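Can you give me the bound-state structure? Components:
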Amino acid sequence: MNNDTLFARAKESIPGGVNSPVRAFGSVGGTPRFLVKASGAYVTDADGTEYVDLVGSWGPAILGHAQPDVVRAVQDAAALGLSFGASTPAETELAELVKSRVVAGGISPIEKIRLVSTGTEATMTAIRLARGYTGRDLLVKFAGHYHGHSDGLLAQAGSGLATLALPGSAGVTEATAGQTLVLPYNDIDALRLVFEERGDQIAAVITEAAAANMGVLAPLPGFNAALVELAHEHGALVILDEVLTGFRVSASGYWGLSVTEGPAYQPDLFTFGKVIGGGMPLAALGGRAEIMDYLAPAGPVYQAGTLSGNPVAVAAGIATLERATADVYARLDAASVTLSNAVSDAFSREGVEHVVQRAGNLFSFVFAAEAPKNYVDVQAQEAWRYAPFFHAMLDGGVSLPPSVFEAWFVSAVHDDVVLGRIIDVLPAAARAAAAA
Ligand code: PMP
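Here's the bound-state model for the whole set.
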């Protein structure tokens, strides 16, 4: 069956034909590809067409799809049992691995870890924990940041809500929405003002370590450090969301990169997802023991999961993290620079106004004259240029994220041959963007 038939059939049984909105090609139009295989740097659809993949399952596939050692680890674990609903030795091994990697500037901010199954659960739990620990109700988030789909986090969120131009979600009560204060990103004065006015009610500030769900938009130098200082002055916690950036932009995430390059800062809680599970449903939150021990059964903040710490997922996570070596990060960085420069050159040759946005090896493009600082700037771009560009790339055998508001993901197996296949399609795609 081809993609059109499959999509029509899916829409009969699944809302919108997809199990996660961004997959529906909502802003670029056309029929989403139904994938049947992902291997290395390539994905294959139901029509048998192969594409060079720059989605990487939205982040996890850092080693390339179905990396043989990771698949073997999953198969070995599966043969011993799919789920125990009991503790396993491997869970502690993964927790130790995370603790040992997230170290920078002499700071080891993660003392304890809890494993969950999705990034949404990780951030939701971190927020409950912050409220339980501080005894306060309010949460501060930044416009354009996405932290998963729990009720309190959908106001002015990025990712699929940006793609579909939704200000928030139906079904969230006013009472819940009212407990989230949304501020412009990169604006430390706005944050200072809100702390001056309501500082004693704010439990936590949650921020993507570097925003990557409104396209890539790194924090201004020193912003994360200033944010932590301000929050701590007022007794609030900082939750650094590294679901997307963690173990992808460096062994110690974006936090490690930024601390190595700039002022040191210590968030109280971290959230992880995507790479930590190597493509299996696995995510985590971690931080200072004093705070983490507020989680049940050690403390009064409840959180649980039938499949938390699932042995097959944990095996994939360990196998992936063990293979995400310095050499792998060097290759990701090099591939990211080569590719983003090539795309930028192609746009420039066709006179398409754009800025390359980078956060470590993550990148995306904004169709604007100047680098954006926040969500308002990002939304003001010539976003309509992306759909024709995207489709020209797809027709040329390259699968990009189907939205201008998403990051591009390279992997350790995006070598020169793979990059060459992408670069060959760029002139035609840049022409399509220019003509839009
Ligand atoms: N936080 C960030 C920064 C994310 O990018 C995402 C997912 N893209 C999430 C949280 C939610 O993770 P999940 O989709 O696994 O629930």
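A couple of observations. The chain has a mean pLDDT of 97. DSSP finds 15 helices and 13 strands in the chain.
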